[in-house]
Design goal:
53% of the residues lie in helices and 17% in strands. The longest helix has 51 residues.
Length: 449
């Protein structure tokens, strides 16, 4: 069964609400009108009762019917029955008065042969126990017809208002949902070549402005991701093209003529270096692919960060000494993490810091023990990184220096991307801060349970 559209649902809802409100208002008006007629009839019968009591006071029996006929002749829709204290009927002003009438005193309503009556029972002499009973009957058929016509009008009004509201509601809903249809049209037109399409947020109603903003933000993220994916594919081709060209050229040159065995050995060693570089590049790419799919599962073991960083600093000490760079470490902290993965991440940061630190500069590693996390910062002196480049430092194959350096895997532009994947696999975050004369990479890792 086909589901109703949102416009149809709103139209039906508007119609139902209007019908309920109209029906409720109509019932209240009908009840108020009926109560008003009862009040008018009560006043009229009470006034006539007083007049009849006066007319029958101290009157002779022979003159009673004449006095009653004279009193009742002033109102054609009024009838009277007088009943004795013994229940015998003394007087009927009309032959159309029903035989069976309510006996309890007070006002009541009856219907007889299509005629409606308001009946009032009261004693002729209120101060006498054996007083005759007066029964006044007022023909209210016209009142009832009015109420019936009003009920029919109420139902007609409810039906017409529901239909009119449904039509107007459908038009209003369709007009109000036009921004959603515009969003749908934009979504249908999105492809890899049109990710720059955006919704006009300024023209959206307040209720949809936030959705439009989120939709545009999603398109911006998709566009950025697609651009990075395209650049990533181009970078892979660029990185692999050079070593493959070297291998092909070197091999072709070697095979152009017979050579001594040592020349072939030297050529194989040269090709081996290129193949090792390509193998390392492929391994790094597989590592990042595992990180993208959440397949990096770090082991959890207690680690003293001071000891782990000291091992790394000892490894890089000869390189730092040759470059004239001072290495230092301060702070202590203990966390649970994967030793080999964290060493790789910190090794990438230290390697980057040493490569971009000038002579007589410094590389400082600082550990900060916080209540719920551990901070690790690697800072080096030297030329800073411009603010517009900071968000892209962790992109794959991205280098802040546009002159691409080729020939070694650690310079392929994957080190920081791998470091970020390792940090995120541990539930942490990494960021870069830079000023004119220094650059700092900050890692924040949770302490764990």
């Amino acid at each position: 069964m086909r589901r109703l559209s949102l416009s149809s649902r709103l139209a039906l809802l508007f119609a139902a609400c209007t019908a309920v409100v109209s029906l409720f208002a109509g019932v209240l008006f009908n009840r108020a009108s009926e109560a008003h007629f009862i009040e008018l009839d009560q006043q009229q019968l009470d006034g006539k009762l007083i007049g009849l009591r006066r007319a029958l006071q101290d009157v002779q029996p022979a003159q009673r019917e004449t006095r009653l006929a004279d009193e009742l002749s002033r109102q054609a829709d009024l009838s009277l029955r007088i009943t004795g204290s013994d229940g015998q009927r003394w007087y009927d002003s009309s032959t159309q008065i029903p035989k069976d009438l309510p006996q309890p005193p007070g006002l009541s309503t009856i219907s007889n042969d299509g005629t409606d009556y308001r009946v009032l029972n009261a004693p002729l002499y209120p101060d006498k126990a054996d007083s005759p009973q007066l029964t006044l009957l007022l023909d209210i058929t016209h009142h009832q017809h009015f109420l019936q016509r009003m009920q029919h009008l109420i139902w007609l009004t409810v039906g017409l208002s529901a239909v009119a509201t449904a039509l107007l509601g459908a038009w209003a809903a369709r007009s109000g949902l036009r921004p959603l249809r515009r969003m749908s049209a934009v979504a249908r037109g999105i492809s890899a070549q049109s990710l720059n399409a955006r919704l006009p947020e300024a023209q959206m109603p307040p209720e949809l402005a936030e959705m439009a903003h989120s939709f545009n933000a999603m398109l911006a993220r998709l566009d950025d991701s697609f651009q990075r994916l395209s650049a990533f594919s181009a970078d892979i081709a660029h990185e692999l093209r050079t070593p493959l060209s070297n291998l092909l050229t070197h091999t072709q040159v070697t095979l152009t003529r017979p050579r001594p065995i040592e020349d072939y050995r030297e050529a194989l060693h040269s090709n081996l270096e290129e193949l090792q570089w390509m193998a390392q590049l492929v391994n790094d790419m597989l590592y990042l692919a595992k990180a993208d799919h959440g397949l990096l599962m770090p082991k959890r073991e207690p680690l003293e960060l001071a000891d782990e960083t000291d091992v790394l600093l000892e490894f890089f000490a000869p390189l730092a000494e040759d470059a004239g760079v001072r290495l230092s470490r301060e702070g202590y902290a203990r966390i649970e993490g994967d030793r080999s993965m964290l060493r790789r991440a910190l090794s990438n940061l230290l390697d980057n810091a040493l490569r971009f630190t000038p002579a007589e500069g410094y590389v400082s590693l600082r550990i900060v023990d916080q209540p719920n996390a551990v901070g690790i910062s690697v800072e080096n002196s030297g030329e800073g990184i411009s603010a517009e480049l900071l968000p892209r430092l962790f992109d794959r194959f991205y280098r802040a220096d546009p002159a691409r350096q080729e020939g070694s895997s650690e310079h392929a532009g994957l080190g920081l991307a791998i470091t970020q994947s390792i940090v995120r696999a541990h539930g942490g975050q990494i960021r870069c801060e830079s000023e004119a004369k220094w650059t700092r990479f900050v890692i924040e890792l949770p302490k764990g349970d």
